[in-house]
Write a structure and sequence with these properties.
407 residues, mainly beta, Porin, 16-stranded antiparallel β-barrel, two-stranded antiparallel sheet, 23 strands, disordered N terminus
Length: 407
Amino acid sequence: MKKSLLILVALVMCLTLTAQVDSTLFKRTQQDTSKLLLNMDAVYNRPFLSVSKLPVAVGGYVEANWQHLGTDGVSEGHQFQMRRLTLFIASSISRRIKFLSEIEFEDGTKEINIEFASVDFEFHPLLNLRGGIVMNPIGAFNQNHDGPKWEFIDRPISATQLLPATWSNVGFGLYGKLYKGNWVYAYETYLTNGFDDQIISNSENKTFLPASKLNKDRFEESFNGIPLLTAKVAIRNKRFGEIGVSYMGGVYNKFQEDGLTLDEKRNHHTLAIDFNTVLPTGTYLNSEWSFTTIDVPSTYSQQYGDKQWGGFFDVVQPVLRRSMFGFESSVVNVICRFEYVDWNKGKFLESGDNIHEDILSVVSGISWRPTTQTVVRLNYRYAWQTDILGNPPSKTAGFQFGFSSYF
């Protein structure tokens, strides 16, 4: 595996070096701005570098930052982080067959993940087949997660700690779009490998969907033989913005082994709603909220929630557009994010008191975009996290500064 990745990196470097020798050999692929773009289009709506007449295009993005955070007055001091280096490789195999892969290196090389690697067969605008490692379309962030597209350094808590951000699996599915005047209608639906019992058996000691990302075997076999269903419908209007409704669900436990029944089938269901728009003032609004139910065995204690919900709401307001430091048409934004997650929505059976295990966070800051493909960000985070018993919340606060850029 490591050898293959090294060969892949070497290939990308060779293509880049070739382009540096003679600038006439390469060009940036142009984005199609004539049609309304949806979150589902994010996988291809990226800058790629084409080299001469080679059928392969490459690209990627990088994220790095500094932060100084403290919880209840205790801090680890100044921290410098190399969050991500992500590589894209795309190819038009024929006019109606496309391939795209996304390989991400996190925290240096602490984690190396193939987040997307699929082949698309285009039969009709409303009927296209996708197979391989696909990004499950639950919510909006899971598909549209590239760092340079966001004014915030940290990914939303609800996307990483409630839903498993960049959640991808092996499988097949259909997608399609219909354009009609100022409207675009779209759908996606996939059957893939899915979750396992780490949802309720994990080091977090709570119901925690992201724990299943630790199961690397999901890319070669299903944990229980039952496909995970993910489906989404989205509508976008040129004036009013985009709204999407998505569902993800299936069986998460191993209920039989070699024909022997071990347990009853236990299901999980997630419903998500996302919305984004740009107001006449230029203000960008973006939000995503999800609700999850999990069939938790009665033998588990009440600290394992059977209902979870949460989401985020972003406001990005451009305040300055002008040439700055030699960068033409750069933009300065004022930003704010509200986010909330409740990992255990319910009441204690004995007392009727609310079960807490939740977090509330507010992030404010400014961002500067010298170009549309690069963002420099300064964030201030303040968060209140409450334990399951509802004790006074621990408070986390601090500054973050960093950048993210396509290349």
